[in-house]
TrEMBL record:
UniProt GO MF annotations: sodium:proton antiporter activity
Cellular component, GO annotation: plasma membrane
Protein name listed in UniProt: Na(+)/H(+) antiporter NhaA
Places the protein is found: Cell inner membrane; Cell membrane
Organism: Olsenella uli (strain ATCC 49627 / DSM 7084 / CCUG 31166 / CIP 109912 / JCM 12494 / LMG 11480 / NCIMB 702895 / VPI D76D-27C) (Lactobacillus uli)
InterPro entries: Na/H_antiporter_dom_sf, NhaA
Length: 505
């Protein structure tokens, strides 16, 4: 989450927390005490709102979301190697059907999770990309160039390592498995290090991971679709035109976009193009602007407050105060439209994605059955080696070497407070490619043994990358702080401190 989004979330939390009003005697403007003003009549409602705010703090915590996803994956591995496997496997393969008049469609639970629910995940990914291109790091090409080009290195080197190991055996279709970085998983693990990692490093890593997502989405679209169906492709293109027309017509309600996005998903699901990409396409057409003139909002609210005050009758029941409720509804409508559709959809789906969809995806796709497996054959398999070494070795090499090259030739400089040891940590943690890697593994191989080999390598590689990243940062900090007061080694400013004049960009 970027600093702008953290500030926004903090503002929302504060606003929710203040809904009960200021206590009597608290200092107000100019030091005058405030008389308590309670906007909510019922204490039970106030308590529910407070509990909802506490729940929002939990659901917006990236570390908790990553932990839930990892727990779901571990549970899947346990279940897959227990007597419950047959029951769970049968449930995952259960067909789900929808019938509307003469039309009928069905898919398995696994396909529903991987194709439909993951399209909602990709919608959230697309929203994050558009946010970054609008107000985040990606709106400054020069500033974003270094982590974005480092992401290219982090994609190419793992792919080369995989191909070098698998080209002789002909298992080349899995080359894209080790190229991805799971941004939620990686940032969740990085947050465990607290202030050992500078906030600028987290922004650098987030920009890199977003660029990595873009590249992975392009790879998924170009190399892992099926034979295209021309009619359904044409229908998909027509729906993209509809989304573009909605945006051009300045439609600021999210409902038409979501409906068109659902129809787009149906068309893409039947077109041979991977249907999850419908989520990314939808995100890029959701308006990122408000249709309210924000500069005039304060004056308008003041006039509406006077109107509400004139219309209110404290002796009448609210159901009989038609002018008052009409004015209140008008204010509610305008305040709803202050938030852009892009942000409204993000709030709607983010908790569901982090705490329902991704854990479900992890549980369904991490069903790696190892009972009776030949572990020697798995370890010796070139797919296992290519995926594991590509993620754990290739990813750090690509990220670090490209960053080093660009800095050495003078193309870019490291952001302030981002040191080389933290670039190494970013490279190591870039090997955590859980979600996208498992999705690609399921598409890359028809042979179940190769799918199991790839998934084993993904799970072990993600675990190894996370542990190695944490150990590297802790060991490096312990070594550099030994004999240096306050953890400030070699004259380098402590993380979070202000830089010396002329340091940084």
């Amino acid at each position: 989450m970027t600093d702008d989004k953290k500030h926004m979330a903090h503002t929302v939390t504060v606003a929710t927390g203040d809904i009960g009003g200021a206590p009597e005697g608290a200092a107000g403007t100019g030091g005058r005490p405030n008389r308590r003003v309670t906007i909510i009549r019922e204490p039970a409602v106030t308590r529910r709102i407070a509990h909802r705010s506490a729940l929002q703090k939990v659901t917006s915590n990236g570390t908790i979301a990553a932990a839930v996803m990892v727990a779901a994956a571990l549970l899947a591995v346990i279940v897959a190697n227990s007597p419950a496997y047959e029951v769970v496997h049968e449930a995952i393969e259960t067909p789900l059907g929808v019938t509307v008049g003469p039309l009928a469609a069905s898919m398995s639970v696994e396909s529903f999770v991987n194709d439909f629910l993951m399209a909602i995940f990709f919608l959230l990914v697309g929203i994050e990309l558009k946010y970054e291109m609008t107000v985040g790091q990606l709106r400054r090409p020069r500033q974003a160039a270094l982590p974005m080009l480092a992401a290219v290195g982090g994609v190419c080197v793992p792919a080369f390592i995989y191909l070098a190991l698998n080209l002789p055996a002909g298992n080349v279709h899995g080359w894209a498995i080790p190229i991805a970085t799971d941004i939620a998983f990686a940032l969740g693990v990085m947050s465990l290090l607290g202030n050992r990692v500078a906030s600028e490093t987290k922004v650098f890593f987030q920009t890199l991971a977003i660029a990595d997502d873009i590249l992975a989405i392009v790879v998924l679209a170009l190399f892992y679709g099926q034979s295209p169906d021309v009619a359904w492709c044409a229908a998909s293109l027509l729906l993209v035109v509809v989304l573009a027309l909605l945006a051009r017509a300045h439609v600021f309600s999210s409902k038409p976009y979501l409906f068109a996005g659902l129809v787009l998903w149906v068309c893409m699901y039947n077109s041979g193009i991977h249907a999850t990409l419908a989520g990314v396409i939808l995100a890029f057409f959701l308006p990122a602007r408000s249709d309210v003139r924000l500069s005039h909002l304060r004056d308008w609210l003041s006039s509406q407050a006077r109107s509400l005050d004139d219309d209110y009758d404290d002796e009448a029941h609210v159901l009989g105060q038609h002018d008052f409720t009409a004015s209140a509804e008008r204010v509610e409508h305008i305040l709803h439209h202050v938030t852009p559709p892009l942000q409204r959809v993000e709030r709607l789906i983010s908790s569901w994605v982090n705490f329902v969809i991704l854990p479900l995806f992890a549980f369904v796709n991490a069903q790696v059955r190892l009972m009776g497996a030949d572990f020697a054959a798995l370890a010796a398999d070139r797919v296992t080696q290519g995926v594991f070494l590509g993620a754990v070795v290739g990813k750090p090499l690509g990220i670090i070497l490209v960053t080093l090259l660009l800095v050495r030739v003078g193309f870019a400089r490291l952001p302030r407070h981002v040191s080389w040891d933290q670039v190494v940590a970013v490279g190591i943690m870039g090997g955590m490619g859980f979600t996208m890697s498992i999705l690609i593994a399921g598409l890359a191989f028809p042979n179940p043994f190769e799918v199991v080999a790839a998934k084993c390598a993904i799970l072990l590689g993600s675990f190894a990358a996370g542990v190695l990243g944490i150990l590297f940062v802790r060991v490096h900090d312990a070594l550099t702080s030994h004999g240096a007061s306050g953890g400030n080694a070699a004259g380098r400013p402590a993380r979070g401190d202000a830089p010396a004049p002329g340091e940084g960009d």
